[in-house]
Amino acid sequence: MTSKLIPSDPSKVMVIRQVTPNITTCSAPFYRFGQMKVGGRGTIVRLQSGALAVFSPTALTPEVRATVEKMGNNVGYIAALDFEHHIFITEWAKAFPSAKLLGVEGLPEKREKSQATAGNKFQHVWTQKNKNDMKVDAEFDAEFDYEYVGSHANKELVLCHKPDKTLIEADMMFNLPAHEQFSKTKDDPTSGVLTKLFVGLQNTKGDATWQKRFLWYIASSGDRKGFNQSAQKIASWDFDRIIPCHGDVIETGGKGIFKKVFEWHLNAAAK
Q1: pLDDT tens, position by position, 148-170
Q2: Per its UniProt record, what InterPro entries does this chain match (predicted)?
Q3: Are 147 and 133 in contact (CB under 8 A)?
Q4: How many whole angstroms separate alpha carbon 242 and alpha carbon 104?
Q5: d(Cα 231, Cα 190) in Å, to the nearest integer?
Q6: For the chain, which domains are there?
Q7: Residue 163: closest CA among 245, 60, 49, 41
Q8: DSSP state of 120
Q9: Residue range 75-104: mean pLDDT, rounded
């Protein structure tokens, strides 16, 4: 199934971009269910200590490896930001065995069920029970705000890199079409019936009504009150940029777009 999701030669289509002096993104094609063009993105953040934090890692191509080396080669943290974004965790953990693995509840058990992903120990796992008391370590906690949105269907971990005022997230919200992620391919990121339908659902244009509906009626349906509270907490952070896993980076004005997309949840939380 993985072969239908990701490119066979990611080196040819990976877009590596320095977003800020501290943040580099690795963007590549990704096909949800093997058909919908949603794109995939890993984010590497260099902390003030020099340690690197890697979020939702993409394939560790020679070019990505060279980028890591240029950034100091000190990978201290490798994080799967939700229940789905873990395909390349094993590859990165093998290359950087001293790095701490971060994930969400249920993911370690899920990975142990397959020989392809079993054998990696997660040092920090967010759960609904520990989310309010969770700490990673001094250097990480000094630079990141984080919220575990266990009420989301995919069990989302959302972070804000405070020095660069940048929100980093996986499936909490989308910003399709995925122009950057397909820019080195011959594929139009808007072509195909399923892609057109999903782009219609998962974009931030206009009043983003369809994404609001998706979040309200589907993503948060299991625990809407908890989801509302998480959205409210994230909206209180100081950020301007949003780096999503799926779709283009929102370079500026991200706080306003986040509040627009999560308007229904924020209004409900305020009542």
Answers
A1: 999 999 999 999 999 999 999 99
A2: DUF4336, RibonucZ/Hydroxyglut_hydro
A3: no
A4: 21
A5: 29
A6: 2-114+122-131+144-270 (3.60.15.10)
A7: 49
A8: P
A9: 96
